[in-house]
Specification:
11% strand; globular; 237 residues; five-stranded mixed β-sheet; two-stranded antiparallel ribbon
Length: 237
């Protein structure tokens, strides 16, 4: 392998595509590249350049978005059998005992949201940046999650989001993407649901799944039951 003028060996194609997954080019929009083998990744980039050339001619950037979305689905779908181990025959879901229009509904999301002034301070770090959260994703995956309580009337400008497992730019532009408070309040106003619980809940979904399932989730469920919640909208991110 020859060296560049800077003395740094050039990257292999494998190193390049792996660099998007918490590597030197950490970009969570394209971390799916690590799920592709080398020929598939090569096909992705070849087609991307072809679509880019067409876009330069007609300005239709939608095809680029669709190209990335289609390959994300293909990459993550290739592990469907492995992910099936997270499906359970004995699920905790139960039918509603009352009409949805009479039900008290709570929102629980794994988006990593919290209200301004109530930072969960992961690992004791105050004002942790998104970049640091991404850099410490391995630590997040080993610890017990922290549940943040968010008053449902919190103004968008007072909402914060930080999560090492997904790109949060869209969530910062419109928190309802993964913390759908506004749609739920509208449903309550139109009588589609009886009422929205005054407290929404959020945590970082990149966490110890065993602790979440065995230790934490049952405690959270009891708290929701104590709040007389009839149904929970779970928003996985």
């Amino acid at each position: 392998m020859t060296e560049t003028n800077s003395g740094t060996p050039p990257e292999t194609f494998e190193e390049f595509r792996n660099s998007f997954f918490y590597g030197s080019r950490s970009n969570l929009d394209f971390k799916f590249l690590t799920e592709l083998d080398a020929p598939e990744a090569s096909e992705f980039f070849t087609e991307l350049l072809t679509q880019l050339s067409r876009t330069m001619d007609d300005g239709n950037a939608g095809r680029l978005i669709e190209h990335a979305r289609r390959w994300q689905q293909r990459a993550y779908g290739s592990h469907a059998e492995e992910k099936a181990r997270f499906r359970y025959d004995d699920v905790p879901h139960a039918p509603l005992k009352k009409k949805l229009s009479d039900a008290r509904v709570a929102l629980v999301t794994s988006s990593g949201h919290f209200a301004e002034g109530d930072d969960p301070r992961p690992f004791g770090v105050e004002d942790m940046t998104q970049a640091e959260a991404e850099a410490r994703i391995g630590e997040f995956l080993r610890v017990e999650p922290t549940l943040s309580t968010i008053p449902t009337g919190t103004a968008p400008g007072e909402l914060r989001v930080r999560h090492g497992g997904y790109p949060v730019a869209a969530a910062r532009l419109d928190h309802n993407v993964v913390l759908p408070l506004r749609p739920l309040l509208e449903l309550a106003a139109h009588g589609v649901i009886g009422e929205l619980s005054p407290t929404a809940y959020s945590f970082v979904g990149a966490t110890s799944q065993l602790r979440l399932r065995e230790t934490v989730a049952p405690v959270w469920a009891e708290a929701l039951r104590a709040d007389q919640v009839d149904a929970v909208l779970l928003v996985p991110v």
